[in-house]
Amino acid sequence: MRQRPVTRAVILGSLTVLLATGCGAEPMVADPVAETGDTVPGAAAGPPSGEPSPSGEAPFVPHPERLPRDPAAAAPLAAAVLPGVADHGVGFVAVDRSVDGPSGTDTGAHTEEDGPDTHPVLTDACVWKRASIPDDVLALRTVEAERPADDPAAEGLPGGVTVTTVVTVHDEVTAADRRMAGILEEGLRCPEQRLRADEWIAGLTSVGALRPGDGALPADDLITERGDFFSEEHGGPHPYLWLVARVGPVTAALAVKGTDGSTEEELTDLAQRLMRRMITAAHTELS
Predict the structure, then answer these.
(1) What is the pTM of this model?
(2) CB pairs under 8 A, 24+ apart, for 26-33?
(3) d(Cα 144, Cα 63) in Å, to the nearest integer?
């Protein structure tokens, strides 16, 4: 899976794990479940990419004829992988950011002001800003949905939740792979990040799995980030979860932000369900 040597440092609590691929070196996969006893979606250890899973199932290989080569072919792929608002569950409605200023997070929705050809990037100051989409991205689609805590449809459900999802189709698998490596590096560099003018996260920890094993989310590569979410509207800390998966040249990312009454268990269940749907759709479209 790796096309060039990559060295990644990952912090999980007080534990530092080195995930390395290099000349003649075997990939080392962090097993956060074994180390902490906590369940981290998709972070179960598995065999390195290119080796069969314990059940003997070979890693997913996209069909060459199904790989998009231009934006016109990539756009329907991104649309097919992206979940709709109704896929989120009971009480979820679309979020309209058209009245907001420029928005953030790598899974953040862009506004009409931002323009359709921009995407979020993390600055050296650990603040998310929008920049032009790089040349190696063929298509990018975003949906943002929320379950308002005061919505009658959400009665009996724990707390308000906001989910922002982005699907990116890269021109090559190597480009998608580089983006995954960059995400791990960003989490290490910026454990505190400003999402918007009135939203921020702190205590961010990242867990990377080079090849999730059986029983995990069946992606080629998957990263989980957890932290505490704060906002001027909802205060904090509240649970925050970010999942990013790669299937071939497709990366699917979702950020789940909780408020009063939200639990990390609920956010994890929601994130796993939506991510599994996207991974399955990517497999179907690329097979």
Answers:
(1) 0.73
(2) 27/2, 27/210, 27/211, 29/209, 29/210, 29/211, 30/207, 30/208, 30/209, 32/207
(3) 30
